[in-house]
Amino acid sequence: MWEAKASIRIEFPSENRAIVVLDALKPETKESPRQRVRVDVKRDGRNLRLLFEAKDTTALRASINSYTRWVMVIEDVLSMTESFEAISQ
Q1: pLDDT tens digit sequence for 11-70
Q2: Half-sphere exposure in the Cβ direction for 34 (13 Å, CA)
Q3: How far from 79 is each of 15, 24, 29, 85, CA to CA, in Å?
Q4: Which of 4, 23, 32, 86 has the largest count of CB atoms under 10 Å?
Q5: Residue 29 · residue 13 · CB < 8 Å
Q6: What domains, with CATH codes, occur in the chain?
Q7: Region of 45 on the Ramachandran plot (φ > 0 left; ψ -120 to 50 alpha; else beta)
Q8: What is the pTM of this model?
Q9: Per-residue pLDDT tens digits for 76-87
């Protein structure tokens, strides 16, 4: 059934940052009725491991692209928030 698989590990500067990113990604891992990809996100200290299982390589690639973009956007927002907090102190 699941023809293509991939595992990606992302290391963050702190355990707290990894927790925040994990919490932001969790809603995206919920199953939909016509799902071609299953994604599991786990945290180990400062690391997140994204485990992808897909019905085909096209779905796998698209899912990996989506998740990595989401992680980059979350990181950008967190960095901007930290910058604003530093300025206001």
Answers
A1: 999 999 999 999 999 998 887 656 899 999 999 999 999 999 999 999 999 999 999 999
A2: 0
A3: 15, 15, 24, 10
A4: 4
A5: no
A6: 4-88 (3.30.310.50)
A7: left
A8: 0.85
A9: 999 888 877 778
